[in-house]
Amino acid sequence: MSLSIKVALGQSTMNTPAELLIPTNLTVDGRTGWSIIGMRYSVQPLHNAVPATANSNVFIELNTETGNQLFTDNDSILYEVLQFTGVAASTTARQIFGNTERRLVEPRITVQPNLYLYLTSSGLTAPVTAYVEVIYDIVKLSDIEVLRLMQGGA
Questions:
Q1: Which of 72, 79, 151 is nearest to 116 (CA)?
Q2: Domain of residue 105, residue span
Q3: What is the pTM of this model?
Q4: Would you say the C-alpha torsion 152, 22, 106, 147 has a positive or negative sign?
């Protein structure tokens, strides 16, 4: 049976990065980890956040380290990019961001005490809020597996 944790993360002003700490309550001596399966999310912009004549992007990252991580970084667990094109013939475009679920091809095991949700955007004219549900299983690990995961960025 999978578990989940639900969080909401909003920008304070348009196109500025926002970050949220998600405690896992894992300890080094606990011999357990989170096997992250994926996440469900919904991004809700304020009214008319997507301009009529520009392209817009929203980036959502789930990391084991604080800050913006590259997709190729070992600390990057899940990296989502939502891209939207404005409607050139309109003066008030309004994009609707649907609910999305992303499953990892192979679950990602972490033993970190905290995960970090990172949200940023470009080209929007208002702040956005991301509602995210991280889906995971709790797995038993040996001491050596915990040490390897701590060394390897997860």
A1: 79
A2: 3-151
A3: 0.86
A4: positive
